[in-house]
């Protein structure tokens, strides 16, 4: 005969954070089941929240009325919109304010994500905010002399601390803090999640060399994750990236380090919360391998040489400017030959004129 627990016995504690995701892994929802539909609904709601927040923030930031206030916060010594202006690969002037707007959409979508444990929401907000803050610091105070890991490490060996080194260290620290917020307790898991968040943020920044490339890559990774165990975090990434993708493709704005690092960090936080340890190790290895390859190979050259990647990369972008007509130049006139002159010999004192 089964012994029933007394009525006053406390209920079993509800799993939180990573524990809730582990339970979702142990009990996968069947496709089309109410649980699977509920997850998709939560991811769609999070995507809508992130998209609405990102669009609203972008409209406020680019309005002339708000321009002075934004510059007072980020660049108090120079009241000029040029601090957020950059020149893209085509030579057109674009604004970097897409980055802060995207970061706000990521944080809002993750913070209000339905059907997502509180710890995971806090971890995603921490990761995205850290990537945005340190990325904006590199945008506004960065030196153009040091590029890539090799450049920053070389400057560090010479005793010079670059803004890129500060950014990588800061995003790594906020990644470890986000892992601790999510419920990780083992030091190995904390370091693994922190490295995954920082590496994904850096890789997303490396992809942000052409309009829409980083946002398309984030959408390609986040869309399948909407059916995973943490759809709210993936939905925030997909919604915020899709909302500002038209501005990026039209070359009116660009992500910059602020937006690209925030997007990659949020994507890394979603992967750290959704994947088991072997998959996280594999993801970190793949991201680190691509980052190392970028030191020796140009991503743009590889994409242009691959037809499928080239079509996807150019999808929605402005067509390349046609080469202008070459002006016909008149032929250079030939120089008129001059008659040869006989060399004049200086006449010596007392000498006679030579006979002709």
Structure report:
The chain is an all-alpha fold and 356 residues long. The protein has one domain. The chain has 14 helices and two strands. The protein has a two-stranded antiparallel sheet. Helix 2 packs parallel to helix 10 (231-249), helix 7 (163-182) packs across helix 8 and helix 7 packs parallel to helix 11 (256-274). The longest helix has 29 residues, at 34-62. 41% of the residues are buried. The model is unreliable at 74-80 and 349-356 (pLDDT under 50). Residues 314-356 are annotated as: Disordered. Keywords: Transferase. GO terms for molecular function: transferase activity. This is UDP-N-acetylmuramyl pentapeptide phosphotransferase/UDP-N-acetylglucosamine-1-phosphate transferase.
Question: Going across the major beta sheet, what is the strand order?
Answer: 1-2
Helix content: 55-70%
Q: Output the radius of gyration.
A: 30 Å
Counting helices, strands and paired strands, the structural category is mainly alpha
Beta-strand content estimate: under 5%
* Shape verdict: globular
Q: How is the biggest beta sheet arranged?
A: 2 strands, antiparallel
Number of domains: 1
Number of strands: 2
N/C terminus separation = 147 Å
Oligomer: single chain
Provide a count of the helices: 14
Low-confidence stretches: 74-80, 349-356
Mean pLDDT: 81
Give the SSE string.
HHHEEHHHHHHHHHHH
């Amino acid at each position: 005969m089964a012994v029933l627990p007394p009525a006053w016995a406390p209920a079993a504690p509800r799993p939180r954070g990573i524990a809730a995701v582990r339970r979702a892994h142990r009990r996968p929802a069947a496709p089309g089941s109410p649980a699977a539909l509920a997850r998709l609904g939560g991811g769609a709601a999070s995507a809508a929240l992130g998209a609405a927040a990102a669009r609203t923030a972008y409209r406020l930031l680019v309005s002339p009325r708000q321009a002075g206030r934004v510059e007072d916060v980020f660049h108090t010594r120079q009241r000029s919109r040029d601090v957020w202006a950059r020149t893209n690969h085509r030579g057109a002037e674009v604004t970097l304010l897409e980055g802060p707007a995207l970061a706000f959409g990521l944080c809002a979508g993750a913070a209000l994500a339905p059907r997502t444990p509180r710890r995971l929401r806090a971890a995603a907000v921490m990761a995205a905010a850290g990537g945005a803050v340190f990325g904006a610091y590199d945008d506004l105070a960065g030196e153009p002399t040091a590029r890539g890991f090799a450049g920053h490490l070389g400057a560090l060996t010479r005793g010079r601390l670059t803004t890129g080194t500060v950014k990588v260290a800061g995003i790594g620290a906020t990644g470890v803090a986000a892992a601790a917020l999510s419920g990780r307790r083992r030091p190995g898991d904390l370091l693994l999640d922190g490295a995954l968040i920082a590496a994904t943020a850096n890789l997303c920044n490396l992809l942000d060399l052409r309009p829409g490339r980083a946002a398309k890559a984030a959408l390609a990774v986040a869309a399948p994750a909407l059916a995973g165990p943490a759809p709210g975090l993936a939905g925030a990434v997909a919604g915020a990236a899709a909302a500002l993708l038209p501005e990026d493709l039209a070359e009116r704005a660009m992500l910059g380090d602020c937006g690209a690092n925030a997007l990659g960090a949020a994507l890394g936080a979603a992967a750290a919360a959704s994947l088991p340890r072997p998959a996280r190790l594999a993801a970190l290895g793949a991201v680190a391998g691509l980052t190392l390859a970028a030191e020796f190979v140009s991503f743009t050259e590889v994409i242009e040489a691959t037809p499928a990647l080239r079509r996807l990369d150019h999808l929605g972008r402005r067509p390349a400017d046609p080469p202008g007509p070459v002006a016909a130049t008149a032929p250079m006139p030939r120089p008129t030959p001059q008659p040869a002159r006989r060399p004049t010999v200086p006449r010596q004192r007392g000498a006679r004129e030579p006979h002709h």
